[in-house]
Design goal:
Length: 147
């Protein structure tokens, strides 16, 4: 149920935001996305875009922000902007790489008793964060097509 409520929110917020982008940007969005967004209505959620606030100041959910980022990267950004975004992704991936999470400060605090404990293997699936976002968006779109 939580996913349905969130999807309501994302689609309603995107629908409202697309009303305020320029015609050239709107025209670059594929028709299948526009159809999904424009045909969607909700009885449980309403969102009004405040033209006096910047997009960052709007009260939109993180999934809506991710969807806007998806639209920007795939349809609105020029090659130079895409290159800067990819460089930022790479920097963030290196900065927040799972192997860098446990730095020396934390390692010093590990209790020596852990040597006596049995070893447990942890498998971490290395999937880039932006790919996770794209997969989530694709899942949302496919979920809406089914129902």
């Amino acid at each position: 149920m939580n996913k349905t409520i969130n999807m309501d929110r994302v689609l309603i917020e995107i629908k409202e935001i697309l009303n305020y982008v320029g015609k050239d940007m709107y025209d670059k969005v594929p028709d299948y996305i526009k159809n999904i967004v424009n045909c969607y209505s909700s009885n449980t959620y309403e969102f009004k875009y405040d033209i006096n606030k910047e997009l960052e100041e709007q009260n939109i959910c993180i999934d809506t922000k991710n969807f806007i980022a998806y639209l920007y990267y795939n349809y609105w950004a020029d090659d130079e902007s895409k290159k800067r975004i990819e460089e930022a992704w790479d920097r963030n991936e290196n900065k927040y790489n799972s192997s860098n999470i446990f730095n020396n400060k934390i390692e010093r605090n590990i209790v020596k008793e852990s040597k006596e404990q049995t070893n447990t293997e942890l498998v971490i699936k290395n999937e880039k964060w932006y790919k996770k976002i794209l997969n989530k968006i694709k899942a949302l779109i496919c979920f809406n097509k089914k129902g």
